[in-house]
Task: inverse folding
């Protein structure tokens, strides 16, 4: 499980560290013009049905709202995968999406801190975002990565999901990618 970087306009100490250390993170975004070029080239007959907006944290794209509008222009169902921290900074664009998946991996602040390395402020921002999605009837899901270390916590994850009322709750077996911290089931 990776540490979540707080996306506060890339000015917080964690973001500045990453930006000052290019070996840690490659910071780039596809331009809206390039994105449209790709859509024109590969979806010229408008046969693609779904656009998955992913790749790191898609909500930090400086023109996320324009990317969403452009996808809509090409008549595709739009889905996004997010860590949920900056949902509240993208309200209009999120209301235009067909589906939002929030990668949770936790059910309270302590497990969020343990598994994601996140702060209390970040966890509270996620909860605020989940409340917004639910109140605005946005189709959303919660996903959890399950390992030998947290499989016994699944009931609490289910209870958390029931409280926040997503359309779906997903449970995925971890692929530890060489980490010795977590073991697959």
Result:
């Amino acid at each position: 499980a990776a540490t979540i970087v707080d996306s506060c306009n890339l000015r917080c100490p964690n973001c500045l560290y990453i930006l000052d250390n290019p070996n840690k993170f490659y910071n780039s975004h596809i331009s809206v013009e390039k994105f449209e070029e790709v859509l024109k080239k590969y979806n010229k007959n408008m046969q693609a049905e779904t656009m998955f907006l992913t790749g790191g944290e898609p909500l930090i794209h400086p023109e996320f709202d324009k990317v969403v509008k452009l996808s809509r222009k090409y008549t595709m169902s739009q889905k996004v995968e997010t860590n949920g921290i900056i949902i509240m900074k993208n309200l209009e664009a999120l209301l235009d999406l067909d589906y939002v998946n929030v990668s949770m991996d936790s059910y309270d602040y302590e497990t969020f801190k343990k598994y994601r390395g996140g702060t209390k402020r970040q966890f509270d921002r996620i909860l605020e975002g989940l409340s917004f999605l639910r109140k605005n009837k946005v189709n959303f899901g919660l996903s959890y990565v399950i390992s030998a270390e947290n499989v016994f916590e699944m009931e609490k994850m289910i209870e958390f999901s029931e409280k926040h009322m997503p359309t779906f709750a997903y449970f995925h077996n971890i692929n530890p990618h060489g980490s010795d911290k977590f073991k697959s089931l």
Notes: The beta strands are 50-53, 77-82, 99-103, 140-146, 168-173. The radius of gyration is 17 Å. DSSP finds seven helices and five strands in the chain. The first helix runs from residue 13 to 20.
